[in-house]
Amino acid sequence: MTTRQVPATIQDWADVRVVVLGLGVTGFSAADTLAHIGARVTVLAAKSDPAKRDVLEVIGVNTRETPADADAIAAIADIEPDVVVISPGYRPDSELVRHIDSAGIPLLGDIDLAWLLRDLSPRKAEWICITGTDGKTTTTQLTAAMIEASGKRAAVCGNIGIPVLDRIRDPEGFDFLVVELSSFQLHYLHRISPWSSACLNIADDHIDWHGSKEAYVAAKAKVFEEVRSVCVYNVDDPVTEALVEGADVVEGARAVGFTLGTSGVSMVGVVEDLLVDRAFIDERWTHGTEIASMDLLARSGLAAPHLIADVLAASALAMSAGASHEEIARALASFTLGAHRIQPVADVDGVLWIDDSKATNSHSAAAALGTFDSIVWIVGGLLKGVDIDPLIIGNAGRLRGAVVIGVDQQPVLDALKRHAPDIPVVAVDPRETRGVMNAAVASAASLARAGDVVLLAPAAASMDQFRDYADRGKAFADAIANRVNGQA
After folding, report:
1. Which distant-in-sequence residues (6+ apart) come within 8 Å of 383 by Cβ?
2. Mean pLDDT of the region 13-22
3. Domain range 343-483, CATH architecture
4. Cβ distance 81 to 19 under 8 Å?
5. Residue extent(s) of CATH 3.40.1190.10 domains in the chain
6. Where in the chain is the domain with CATH 3.90.190.20?
7. How far is CA 16 from CA 38, 39, 105, in A?
8. Alpha helical stretches, state H, 321-349
9. Residues of the chain with CATH 3.40.50.720
């Protein structure tokens, strides 16, 4: 069997038979782009949104509903595609993906596809890629804001919600694309060469999807491959440093660390109440230069330790793109955190309600829990195969109570019983799908006292009871508003 070849130029895609798997944001973007350059595209999806299907039909894209892997395999046999473009949610151990591999059909993610089609842009942007278990979105947003403060045109894309393929078709083009990459996207990644990249941290997450911790780490490691300028790693997380040391980078690329401790040579870090650069200045062997003050971070809501780490990583990436210390400070002064990330929702009778729905794993939940002293914790959802015991062991002393939601409740309840046996715990019936957050908020209110924080930091994915983490956060805010207004 001979593996087919991926078209080398944009012109080579004309009349190429392509199957796109999935019709979410990524799949739609891939199908639209490929049709634009003349490929013969068929989308296979378990479900197809009628509005998207109608749009694709107008531009000549066929859509087939394939509820099971066997249906998709049969469709692929019928179509005989030259290339398959896969959306990042498809598990690598699925029957469908194994079939495509065994058939020798090239399998591309949208990130690889966008890299191949960069000439669609009037100016070919440099890419800055960011991954990690936690902090990706904030760091991505910060990096783009800092680069834009330096006078260059930058845009965020990737796992942050805007497909890279949409960005490379922008009529004006960009100087830099700041690309957030999930471990799913990195698993299917093969052939890009970013300007700079960062891996912020590594903790257990998505172990069920990848099959093992080792496979998850191996996917994250790909972010450093073929980097041409700077690899940014976390000095306080030895795994990320090991990934840099093992990376096959372009000759001349260098490693820059970030740390919440005092910065050494080729690092950015903290000295007293200042963020300090000892990586991008000529006198770095003997001196450091101020990037920004802690007071500035506090005024922008970025003073929590995990957010300081994000700022340091973003600063290193932005400086690799030419941003000055003054430009970085200016960007920080006007920066606003995204929704659902340690976001205050209400202060009712001395109880502060905080939405950190974006805490979809133990690592990010630990960062949120570590910010407060007396917490009623709303926790649970899809645990993704992760052991939650260490999270509870490390934060049991902060908990006044816990409200457990989601379908994977028993491991959470058992861990709370083992490691925080003295706190009251309420389990919301997992069958309570429509009113789950109203019930959770009511239970949390009954446990909280003045001076407490009610913290939604689920340490789990949301798709068991909500559309996504944003939908979960919105439901939390709505339930609080209903309660305040006497509707719940």
Report:
1. 408, 411, 412, 459, 460, 461
2. 96
3. Alpha-Beta Complex (3.90)
4. yes
5. 122-333
6. 343-483
7. 8, 5, 13
8. 325-333
9. 11-105
Is the pLDDT assigned to residue 233 strictly greater than 80? yes
Residues 145-180 as b or e (16 or more Cβ within 10 Å = b)? bbbbbbebbbbbbbbbebbbbbbbbbeebbbbbbbb
* Contact of 284 with 276, CB cutoff 8 Å: no
This prediction has a pTM of: 0.78
pLDDT of residue 433: 60
* Contact call for residues 350 and 451 (beta carbons, < 8 A): yes
Name the percent of the chain lying above pLDDT 90: 76
Per CATH, which fold does 11-105 belong to? Rossmann fold (3.40.50)
Q: What is the pLDDT of residue 1?
A: 43
Asked: is 122-333 a CATH 3.40.1190.10 domain? The reply is yes
Q: Among 292, 294, 289, which residue's Cα sits nearest to residue 279?
A: 289
Question: Alpha-carbon distance 411 to 400, whole Å?
Answer: 19
Q: Do 274 and 290 meet the contact criterion of CB atoms below 8 Å apart?
A: yes
141-155: average pLDDT: 97
Tell me what pLDDT residue 325 has.
98
Is the separation of the CB atoms in 437 and 465 below 8 Å? no
CB 394 within 8 A of CB 377: no
